[in-house]
Amino acid sequence: MSCQSCNRQPHDYVTEVIDHVKLDDSFLEIATVADSLQVPWGMTFFDDKILFTEIIGNVKQLDLSTGQVSTLLRVPDVFTRTTPGLLDIVVQKGVKDNPYVIINYTAKENDRIISKLVRYTYQKDTLINPVDLLTVKGAKGHNGARLMLDSKNMLYWATGDVADNTEAQDSTTLNGKILRMTINGEIPPDNPIPNSFVYAWGFRNMQGLTIDDRGNIFTSEHGDAIEDEINLIKPLNNYGWPAIEGMHDTPDEIEIAKHSSRTKPIWSWTPVVAPAGLAYYGESDIPEWKNTLLLVTLKSQSLRVLHLDDKNQQVKREQVYFSKKYGRMRSVLVTPNGDIYLSTSNRDWNPQPGFPLPTDDRILRLRKTTETPDNYLKEDVVETESKEHKGKQLYTSFCASCHKEDGLGVKGTFPPLKNAARVEDSNAFIDLLLNGSKGRDTINGVFYEQDMASFSFLNDEELAAIINYVKTAFGDGEQISDDHVKKKRK
Ligand code: HEC
């Protein structure tokens, strides 16, 4: 009797292909590679296996050549509740036998919640020899956290602010920070603050941390109510929380950033998407996504593909996939062969309508296929930009060259917009943008020689967005409608 499955190639164990998705040219197949899990929070790759955590305290491994899932460790002292629990995991790089495996989880010390970083050694399908590397404050919420090893096995830990607004701006504490240490938990001599783990500060609650092939480090961070962030992490930079959230766009934020150096995010979302796992995609296997950051989200239940510029310093554009299709997603991993793995988080404390499915939680694999499927998913058309965000972007493109990002203008050349007469007077403001201003003008006793061009080439909606942004950021905050512009245009 012939036995087809007996001859299977190691990598082609039977997986259930559940969907296809079309990119510009390529088709990807989406397959379930593991199911019935309990919030697979962190994933890491080692030796044709995915090692992953479950929030309830299990470290498991998925053998990519057989599809077998087995348990490596039950963390004895994990404390789980809503968001605390066993969080992230990383494996030492470049070591084939018995590498270190580092995990982060919340535990209890008497009545106090703590957040522990513990190193184990991988041996024969189990984890042995736990060594405590570092312990920081934990809390019922905002524990972060993500772990990352760079190519030299330097360990980075993105810690949460434990919902305490005094942490992020205190460079002497270890919460609301990116911490950097050796794989033995020691402070490296080249850390930016001597004898301190602190590498960067001013963070709220990060659940994404990744590094590109040039050594740029990126994080994703949950904002409070209005702005989620992607940050490019540089040593000793201060990212502003809690005084600054997201872009520097309110008068208070602009004022703070003027007096002390604060680093802006390279991308932000209003309304919030609840960003979680983040992975750099540098492979050529899926050419449309080469040089992107892949972000999975909880609230918006989607995969977001953030295309980077040539220098990997800015996000150029965002694409959204799978909105609400697989529910909340917590973790994303790119393996050396260019496959992408996503984990769902539908059995966590906050499942969305329609979830969890009986098979949740799942680990899904995305892989390019040469077949042309009959049915497939496409990029989601979503209103990714709020009006507020759009107004700010238009202001940056069309106005900031003269009036400057902080609205203060250039003394004697371009007038300030802060409390300006024609910012307060909506009709005059609309007229100015529709008609421009020709002829010399004296404003508040200062003579301006130059004219201001008309912006009537922008549509009603765009002009209203700019005006509303300027009024919010620099003026009385009063808002106008698209219709108001339309009426004045006639
Ligand atoms: C090339 C430079 C330049 C650009 C770009 C520019 N402006 Fe101006 N703007 C000026 C100058 C010069 C004046 C003052 C002279 C005048 O009013 O004729 C002015 C005046 C203003 C005033 C009046 C201030 C007051 O005190 O009454 C407002 C409001 C204003 N600009 C808003 C904008 C907005 C919004 C944009 C973008 C859509 C913009 N400007 C783009 C140069 C510029």
UniProtKB/TrEMBL annotation:
Pfam family, one: Cytochrom_C
Sequence ranges assigned to domain Cytochrome c in this UniProt record: 386-474
Highest taxon of the lineage: Bacteria
Stored InterPro entries: 6-blade_b-propeller_TolB-like (IPR011042), Cyt_c-like_dom (IPR009056), Cyt_c-like_dom_sf (IPR036909), Glc/Sorbosone_DH (IPR012938), Quinoprot_gluc/sorb_DH_b-prop (IPR011041)
GO terms for MF: electron transfer activity; heme binding; metal ion binding
Keywords assigned: Heme, Iron, Metal-binding
Listed PROSITE patterns: CYTC
Cited SUPFAM superfamilies: Cytochrome c, Soluble quinoprotein glucose dehydrogenase
Keyword Heme belongs to the record: yes
Protein name (Swiss-Prot/TrEMBL): Quinoprotein glucose dehydrogenase
